[in-house]
Every structure is written in structure tokens, then in C-alpha cells.
Design goal:
Order of helices and strands: HHHHHHHHHEEEHHHHHHHHHHH
Strand order of the largest sheet: 1-3-2
Shape: globular
Structural class: mainly alpha
Radius of gyration: 22 Å
Bound molecules: magnesium ion
CATH topology of the largest domain: Neurolysin, domain 3
Number of domains: 2
Length: 485
């Protein structure tokens, strides 16, 4: 019966190739494509997506037969599980629904951008209503237990439920509030306003890539409006950053963040490339990698000692501060209204706000018109600050205009799992001090990367760390770091 799996894998190779093409098309769209190329690129992308959908749907009968086979090993079981999830989605959600979402979001992104710039939620709300409706429809069609939002969570992070998130938040929110209230931080820092020259900052970022020992023949870094990572294969992984010209922390930490994503992509099992399990398991686990490198490693005292000489070499204005001042500058905790500028502590509270609002929009307990006020109330309740406008409130994130509901919690899962890695890795300080990042990479490969998607996220964590999402480790990490100042 080996023949059946072989036949599935042979068909899947075309899906892999289409995914490869889609990644490259998307990377190009965000980096080098001339502006007017967007419309046709959008059409071409939609066509390729459709092709992929049809190939996967054509595999249904074989996948169902393969699933009934006895004595499958974990890799084959994993492949069948991943394919069944894709088949389930494509079978339950008609291509018309996807097209409808695609059409509305191409308008909504433009309208949202303008609405945010002019603080005009009303111009965006009719589109948001339709996007919420489509997502409710997707949740109904996919099916769920207990809460319709669970259907959307599962699409984004296999097996994640509102119960998991409620329990994570009940563990973590009091600790965060405690850290925030006991940590005294400057309300402003003069470095935030200092401008840098892009070419100087590029040199810093290139040095960071070398410190992190990224393999140059398999890796590159470019510039885009929003930093991201794309893995074309284990031997071609690309990241981007952006240069805002002010507050050098942002570009620097975006490079470390994306390098964390890239290390995952580079260390996926090469022998499983071109198969359904040769890819990262989920957005939340992916985010745990980026946040582990960015926050746990990148914002540690030990790492600051390594980068300090590079900063002073290329950025003159850093010379008047010592390492400890730079360390503190990198770790200012300050409740604020904007998620993307949030520190690693209060960031989680921004997710709590979005989680509650999404959940209630999807179960219909609030309307889109009520959402801006609820946003502000929840910001006050969780973060302790009230946005002065919708632009700094409900209009700040790009996600909903792109149709995405249920993906914000991935960032929280990322922090929780990064906390778990921190508590399990041992000797981390020594690895950083000795710049022994290959040991860190080895640990991550051993516990997470080598498995690709063979096991769903919760099972992977149980196998590698003995437990599923446990926010206690993140709580401990935050207490240790911020309450021992
Ligand atoms: Mg990320």
C-alpha cells in the first residue's frame, strides 16, 4: 500500500511548486515590483491559488483511502492530517466565498488606509460589516464546538480554543499589571527622537545578521513597507526590514525578529521538503521563534553587550550612553495605544483587547457600530490608556481590512511559547555571552523545527516540553526580568 502515499506525494509536488511560486510572487510584490503591477499580480495570484485548490481537491479520494490504512508512521499520519485539514477547508468553503472576501478586501484595504489617516471609522464600517459577515459564514460552514470563534482560531492555529486563550489571559494579565505598576520607566526617551542615516543603520543590521550567523548563501535581507519573512525552501529564506530614519530600535529589532522566523524556515526538515509536513506547523509557533530571538535573546543584557560596540561604531549618537542605558532603552515598559509600538510586556494586553472584540463580533454579541467604543473601554481596562481617536484605536491594525479574523491570538501564543522555550533551554545566558548561537539553533531544531508539521502544535509542545501552552513560564520570565531591575 506504499503506492497510495507515493501517488499522493507525487501530486503534492505540484502544490509545493505552486506554493513556491506564490511565495516568490508575494515577496516580489512587497519588495521590487513597480506599483502599477499590483492589479495583474493580484489576478495571477488568485489564479494560482485556484489551481492549487483544484489539485488538493482532486486528491480527496486517495487521502481518504490512505487515512484508513493501518500501521502508518507519524510522518505519514502527519501528511494525511495536514491534507485533510486543507481538504476540509476547500470542501466546506466554496470558492465564491473566498472570491467575495478577496474582492471586498481589495477595496477595504484602500478605504481602511484613508479612514485611518482621516480618523473616519464610519467610512470603513460598512466594509468591516461585510468582512465580519463573511467570517461568521466561514465559522458556520467550518463548524465548531462551544464558540464560533473557535472555528476561526483553528484555521489559524490548529486546535487553539477560546478556553486556551481565556486560561492564558487569566494567568498572564495580573502578572503584567503587577510588572507595569512596579516598573518605573521614563515617559519619554531622548533616543526615540534621534534620526539616523539609512546607510549607517544598514551596516548595523548587516552586522546583526553576522552575529546571528545567518547563512548568507541561503538567506537575504531586503526592504519593504512591513517587515516579513518568506521561506521558499530550506536553502532560500528571505527577510525584510524597513528604515524609518528615526528611533533605531525599530529596524534593529525587526531584523532580529524576522531572523527568528528565518531560522525556523532554514531548519525545517530538508528530507520532508515538497511534502505537506515539510512546512512550519503554525503561525503561533512561528511567532514563538521570532519573539524568542527578538525579546528573550535580543533584548537581554548579554546580547546588548555584544551589539553595543557595533552600535557605537556606526551610530555616533549612541556613544554618550553606556550599555546599561542602552539595555534600558531597549526595555522600556510603557502602556500606550499602538500595538506595533508596544513593549514585550504590555503587547499581550493589546492582544487581549482584539481577542475580546473579535470573539464578540463573530458571535454577534456586539455590532460593528458598537466596536469602537468597546475598543476604547477595553484599552482602558487592560492597558490602562484610552485612545484619543479611532485612528489610534480600532483603526490602527491592517488585519481586518485584509479579511483576517482569528489571527491576533497567534502573537500571544508566540509569547507564551517563547516563555516556555526560555524556561526549558537552560544555559541561555552562557550561550548568548559566548555567542554560541549554534547551540541555541540546535535546541530549537531539536525541539521544534525538525518536526515540520508532523504533529499539531499542542502535541508538538507536549512531546518536546512535556506540556501544551503554559503561560506560567512567560509570567516567570517577565517577573524575573522586570521585577529584579
Ligand atoms: Mg512575526
Amino acid at each position: 500500500m506504499v503506492g497510495l502515499i507515493d501517488s499522493i506525494l507525487q501530486k503534492y509536488e505540484s502544490v509545493w511548486a505552486l506554493n513556491h511560486a506564490l511565495s516568490l510572487m508575494n515577496w516580489d510584490l512587497e519588495t521590487y515590483m513597480p506599483e502599477d503591477g499590483a492589479a495583474r499580480r493580484g489576478e495571477a495570484t488568485a489564479s494560482v491559488e485556484l489551481l492549487k485548490r483544484n489539485i488538493i481537491l482532486s486528491m480527496r479520494e486517495e487521502v481518504e483511502r490512505a487515512a484508513k490504512q493501518e500501521g502508518l508512521d507519524d510522518i505519514n499520519k502527519g501528511m494525511i492530517r495536514v491534507l485533510k485539514r486543507q481538504l476540509d477547508f476547500y470542501t466546506k468553503i466554496p470558492s465564491e466565498t473566498i472570491e467575495k472576501l478577496y474582492r471586498i478586501t481589495s477595496t477595504a484595504s484602500v478605504v481602511w488606509r484613508k479612514a485611518r489617516a482621516t480618523n473616519d471609522f464610519k467610512s470603513f464600517s460598512p466594509l468591516l460589516k461585510t468582512i465580519v459577515e463573511i467570517n461568521r459564514e466561514i465559522a458556520e460552514k467550518m463548524g465548531y464546538t462551544k464558540h464560533p470563534y473557535n472555528a476561526l482560531l483553528d484555521i489559524n492555529e490548529e486546535g487553539l480554543t477560546t478556553e486556551d486563550l481565556d486560561s492564558i489571559l487569566s494567568q498572564i494579565v495580573p502578572v503584567i499589571k503587577d510588572v507595569v505598576s512596579k516598573t518605573h520607566m521614563p515617559s519619554k526617551h531622548e533616543l526615540e527622537k534621534v534620526r539616523y542615516k539609512e546607510e549607517d543603520m544598514r551596516r548595523v543590521n548587516e552586522s546583526l545578521i553576522d552575529i546571528l550567523q545567518m547563512p548568507r548563501k541561503k538567506f537575504r535581507m531586503d526592504v519593504s513597507a512591513h517587515p516579513f519573512t518568506v521561506g521558499m525552501s530550506v536553502s532560500d529564506v528571505r527577510i525584510t526590514t524597513r528604515y524609518e530614519g528615526i528611533d533605531f530600535r525599530s529596524t534593529m529589532f525587526s531584523v532580529i525578529h524576522e531572523a527568528g522566523h528565518a531560522i525556523y524556515e532554514l531548519q525545517l526538515p530538508s528530507e520532508l521538503e515538497k511534502t505537506p509536513v515539510g512546512v512550519a506547523v503554525s503561525g503561533g509557533i512561528h511567532e514563538s521563534q521570532s519573539r524568542f530571538w527578538e525579546n528573550v535573546i535580543g533584548r537581554s543584557r548579554e546580547f546588548v553587550e555584544i551589539v553595543y560596540p557595533i552600535l557605537t561604531k556606526y551610530l555616533d549618537f549612541v556613544k554618550k550612553y553606556d550599555h546599561e542605558e542602552i539595555y534600558r532603552y531597549f526595555n522600556i515598559v510603557r502602556p500606550s495605544t499602538i500595538r506595533v509600538d508596544a513593549d514585550e510586556v504590555t503587547y499581550n494586553l493589546h492582544i487581549a483587547v482584539r481577542y475580546e472584540i473579535e470573539k464578540r463580533l463573530i458571535d454577534g454579541s456586539i455590532s460593528v457600530d458598537e466596536a469602537p467604543e468597546l475598543w476604547n473601554e477595553l484599552m482602558e481596562k487592560y492597558v490602562g490608556v484610552r485612545p484619543s481617536s479611532d485612528s489610534d484605536g480600532i483603526l490602527q491594525d491592517i488585519h481586518w481590512s485584509g479579511g483576517a479574523f482569528g489571527s491576533f491570538p497567534n502573537y500571544l501564543i508566540g509569547n507564551v511559547v517563547a516563555g516556555m522555550i526560555y524556561s526549558k533551554i537552560g544555559k541561555l545566558r552562557r550561550y548568548i555571552t559566548e555567542q554560541d548561537f549554534s547551540s541555541v539553533k540546535g535546541f530549537l531544531k531539536d525541539k521544534i523545527h525538525q518536526y515540520g508539521s508532523i504533529y499539531p502544535p499542542k502535541e508538538l509542545l507536549k512531546r518536546s516540553f512535556g506540556e501544551s501552552y503554559n503561560a506560567e513560564h512567560l509570567a516567570m520570565y517577565l517577573r524575573e526580568k522586570y521585577l529584579s531591575y
